[in-house]
Specification:
This protein is mainly alpha-helical and 174 residues long. Helices cover 74% and strands 0% of the residues. The longest helix has 31 residues.
């Protein structure tokens, strides 16, 4: 009887050293966390750009666009939180400073430039498409998510959210 209890305790202690998602190849885990951090960085820049446009929007559509952009940046904030938490679930460290985000992102800001309403929407739409393309590249890497379907599912859901936000932006262009 003692050996069964001892084995259970040993198994429990051994399990406590695993990542929350269980066994994943160390190299794959690092690669997945790197992919997530790169997406997180671009989400952060898109969030900042959307917030900037929310604050600086001018024109006859101000009230509706102000609300619309607020909805968009709140959606992006939720995406960022989910991605950062997934990095933690992988037992890695998410990017968490503005400098790290800017250094890792391919989305860029245009300090001092305030585009007109249609330019704002077109710029945001382009950035959403760029993130969608980035996610598709990661999801198409052979065998990357074999042991981690949870992250793959998160990326697919993130892709769907960007497609929905892109549809709304495109519809706003007329």
């Amino acid at each position: 009887m003692k050996s069964t209890v001892a084995t259970t305790v040993k198994d429990s202690l051994k399990a406590s050293t695993l990542r929350p998602i269980g066994k994943v190849d160390e190299r794959k885990n690092k690669k997945i966390a790197q992919c997530l951090n790169e997406i997180l960085a671009n989400e952060f820049l898109l969030y900042t750009k959307t917030l900037n446009f929310h604050w600086n929007f001018k024109g006859t559509r101000f009230a509706s666009m102000h609300r619309f952009l607020e909805e968009q940046y709140n959606d992006i904030l939720a995406i960022m939180d989910n991605i950062a938490e997934r990095v933690k679930i992988l037992d890695e460290v998410p990017l968490s400073t503005a400098k790290e985000m800017v250094d890792k992102a391919f989305i860029h800001e245009n300090p001092g430039f305030i585009p007109n309403a249609n330019e704002m929407i077109a710029m945001l739409l382009s950035d959403h498409h760029a993130i969608q393309d980035e996610i598709k590249v990661y999801c198409s890497e052979p065998h990357l998510f074999t042991d981690d379907p949870g992250t793959e599912d998160l990326l697919i859901e993130t892709l769907r959210q960007h497609e929905r936000m892109s549809w709304k932006l495109k519809s706003s262009l007329g």
